Amino acid sequence: MSTYLDTTDAIEPGEVTPPTFSLPALVEALESQTSAPTLEQIYFWLENADVSAEELAPYRGFKDGNYWRHLVCRNDFVEMLVLCWRPGQRTPIHDHNGSHGGVRVCEGNMWETTFTYDPDKGLEYKSASEYLTGAVTGSDVPDIHQLGNPDVSEQDMVTIHIYSPPLGVLHTYKPGSATIDLYTPPDPE
Fold first, then answer.
1. Alpha helices by DSSP H, the chain
2. Residue 16: what pLDDT?
3. Residue 7 domain-assigned (yes or no)
């Protein structure tokens, strides 16, 4: 997503290495939140996630036509989803309408296209990035983007998403248009 945080500080000898988070440990960390975590905190959890295929198995499920959203946990402050994507599936171009979030690519390759919005000119292309398995990226409140599993990948993709506060109605955009529409993602299963 379009907000990059450099969290790759070197660990000095004698320093404590960061903990790793299994999927149950991530759930425990999120469910214990009593306020909205920062984007930096979300990055920390995702960058230190060590989620096994067995832990993801209950949330793996694919469908034709659109990616599938699987709810792992949600409270008033934060939610975690596992999204499963077939090649060629992608989100609409959107922002998170007041939420920030992070994504970890668990399997496959993710493409992201970012945009800027000018009230007079409408939506304009900004940049494109590719994220491989293990990569973490994030999106802050004003960021506009589109995520997807490239057709040419010829493989399924699985991603973990953490948002704070939980997503509600999103703004969606169309290239070259100044119109902003509203989109409510389907309830995750």
1. 23-31, 39-47, 53-56
2. 67
3. no
Number of structural domains in the chain: 1
Asked if the structure places residue 139 within a domain, the reply is yes
Q: Is residue 12 part of a domain?
A: no
Question: What does the pLDDT profile of the chain (189 residues) look like in tens digits?
Answer: 445 444 444 445 556 677 899 999 999 999 999 999 999 999 999 999 999 999 999 999 999 989 999 999 999 999 999 999 999 999 999 999 999 999 999 999 999 999 999 988 899 999 999 999 999 999 998 899 999 999 999 999 999 999 999 999 999 999 888 899 999 887 787
Give the residue from 183, 177, 67 showing the smallest Cα distance to 119.
177
Separation of alpha carbons 122 and 72, rounded Å: 35
Domain span at residue 95 reads 23-183
Both tokens assigned to 185: 């993602």
**DSSP letters of 133-162?**
TT-EEEE-TT-EEEEE--GGG-S-EEEEEE
In a domain? residue 10: no
Q: What CATH number does residue 45 fall under?
A: 2.60.120.10
Torsion of CA 59, 61, 66, 71, to 10 degrees: -20
Q: Which two tokens stand for residue 39?
A: 């984007």
Bridge partner residues of 130 (DSSP): 111
